[in-house]
Each structure stands twice: as C-alpha cells, then as structure tokens.
Write a structure and sequence with these properties.
Structural class: alpha/beta
Number of helices: 13
Radius of gyration: 22 Å
CATH architecture of the largest domain: Alpha-Beta Barrel
CATH superfamily of the largest domain: Metal-dependent hydrolases
Number of strands: 18
Helix content: 25-40%
Strand content: 15-25%
Number of domains: 2
CATH class of the largest domain: Alpha Beta
Largest sheet: 8 strands, mixed
Bound molecules: zinc ion
Amino acid sequence: MKTLAWLPGLIACLALVTGCASLQPPAATAPRAVNATGTPLAVTLSPSTASPLPVATRVVPTSTLQPQPTTTGTTDGAETLALVNGTLIDGTGAVSLADAVVVIRNERIVGVGTRAAVPIPDGAQVIDVQGATILPGFFNTHVHRGYSAQNLQTWAQAGVTTVRDLGTSPAPDTFANRDALLRDPRNARLVAAGPMLTVPGGYPMVPWGMQGLVIASEQDAVVKVNQLLDDGADVIKIALESGSTFRRQIPVLSKAEAATIVKTAHARGVRASAHVTAAEDLERVLDAGVDDIAHMPYDHVSDELIARIVKAKLYWIPTLELWQHVGISDAPIIDNLRRLVAAGGQVALGTDYAGYAAQFELGMPLSEMEAMQKAGMTPMQIILAGTRNAAVVCSLDRELGTLEVGKVADVLVVSGNPLQDIHALASVRLVIHNGTIIRQ
Ligand SMILES: [Zn+2]
C-alpha cells in the first residue's frame, strides 16, 4: 500500500478550489478562490463587463518594433499585415526558417515562408521583428477557471491564445458565458467541456463534493451527451477515477456507459477526454475509446500499457505542474512521460490550471515545460505539444496550431531562440489573436 501523505492536503485544497466553482453558477456570482495559504486569489468566473473591442480593431504599432508602412489596408478595405525579418517555427515540426515573412489578411494567414518566396502586398502594414522568433499562438489544453475574462486576457497576453477548460459545475449559462468571452478579442479562445460526466456518487462528487453531470445508464448517456452537445459543449470530459489514488473505492462509469458516452460524442464529431490519476484506470480509458488522457498518472505505467495507448493514438496531457504543486515525488510521472515519448506517443501541453489550490502559472506554462524537458522532451517537441498537437486535442487543427496559409492568425513573437532555451517563450514581443494585434 502506498503512503500518500499528500492526499488530505489535496482533498482539502481541491475542495476549496473546485468545490467553490461547482457550487455556484459562474455567471450568478464571482466566487473568490483561496490559495493554499488562505489568501484570496483575484479570480472571477463571470465574463468581462467591459465593452468588447470590435473584432477588426488593430492596435497601432509602437516604435519598438519599427513599423515601416506609410499606409495600412488595401484598396478593397481589407487589412493586411506582414511580419518580416523573423525566424519562423511554424508548428508543423519543420526546421526553423531564417529571414521569414508571415502575411496576414484580416484574420487569416495568406503568406508564410522566406522573404524571397513571399511577396509583401502593396499597402500592407509591415512590422520588422528584428530577428525575433515567430511561432503559432500556444494552447493550454487542461485548465479550470477558464470562464474568466481576467484569466483569459492574462493567457492571451502571454501568447497562450487558446485554453481548454476541462471541468466546471453544471450550470445553465456555461456555454453562453463562453460565447460572450469569445466575442472579446483580448480574451484567449475558450474551448469548453462544461461539467464532467460521471456516475451517482462518483468523481468529482467523491471526494471533493464538486458537482458532475450524472449518468445513470447507457440510455441516459445518449440523452445527456446529446443535450450537452446541443447546449454547446466543445468536448466531452469523463471521469474514470476508481479511487486508488484517494485510498477509497469510488463508483465509476461502466465500460458500456463510458463507451456509449464517447460513441455518442464521436457520432457528432466531438472528442472526449478522460480524467484518470492512477495507472490502474488506464484500461478503462482504452476501453472507453476516448481521444486524450487529461493527467499523467502519478504511479508507474507499464510499457505494455504505454504501447497500447500509443497504438490507439491517444494524446496525453501530462499536467506535471499539478503534481509539482501536490508535492509528491515526480520520478514515476517523469519516467512515464519519458517512456511515452520514446515509444512515439503524442503529448499535448496542459497543466490543470486551478485544479489544485496553488499558484499555477497563469500565462506561458514554463514550469510545465521545464518538467517536460526533465522527461527528455526537446524544445521542438514541447513547442509541438503546445501548438500543433494541442490544436488536434482541441479539435481546432484545421484552423489553428500551425502557421500555414489559410489558417487563423494566432501568432506569438518572442525574443531569442526557444529551440536553444525554452524560456525564450516568455520574452514576448508581439501577440496576434484572430488576426488582431493584442500585444506589442
Ligand atoms: Zn483538471
């Protein structure tokens, strides 16, 4: 029997953070989270009441990046922006490209490549990035407290232009809140699961007292998943937590119920993510047929299970920052990740922001990235986890995740070379979100 001395703390802390979210509908109140030391965190779950910027608004460039144009816009009224003199890491996995140009027209990328290969349209607003690195906007694919303009703006300012909220309490206005937040271009894009699907008496009601969406049978699963998707869920999150992590038995969805939930989501083109924390529940994940695993288990995952997960093409979201905050030895967790990557597994960047009462990094998740490096991931692999792979996990890979012609322009420009030092990702010079410059 493992001794999990950290658990009482985890239970108490999570009850504070997620219980708070679960018991009060996001729009009705603005509950305050409390961190481990009891200090209230400035967190709001209600959308900003500030007037949204019109989508077409562009911030006029400042002198720091030396804009060169004398005119903006083109004869047909469309806005064209060209970033020049950058080093491109396009998020496809291709080697970086020196003297690169990215041309954006309205919200889309219309040209990307070397200066010699990509013409700058007449009348474009040209920004010389002076050798800085141009990357896709990043994602955090596992957060909570995403229904907050303040949080979303902090993420966006750091170049994390999309986040995926993997669990809030059931509330009638969850997706209306999301839609309101999406209308403000200053906010990072919010991909929303709404509530976690579980069984009566299951996780997260046990042990946290947090509310989930309760599934009573296979038939009920079909009805409730369809309803949740009609309401506007972008992804379905299911709890597959049988309790060993908490040294108790927690009722869990049957194999048939879990598979029905996932099948119902897939029939409507929606992906499913599974909460697990222990290796012994990974069989359930494989049986359910979900698309991603929302945590790396804290205990040893066998090579055989890793091979099956790789073969099933599941994406894995390590949430190493969560485990750091919990304070347990990260050796098995790091070792699981190392062997997953060595076996060809797919990793997406995600931290479980606010899934524990600690000061998670709100912005570019550098401590998560440092831990990924500890597991042997290269800076390029980490960048792909935070861009292309994360876009797949969020079902946004047709629109985002790479800098390619036709994609939506979410762009991060940083000083230095993140392939040499991943911390360069925090040296933000420019952020473009949906084609709009939101930080310069
Ligand atoms: Zn979580």
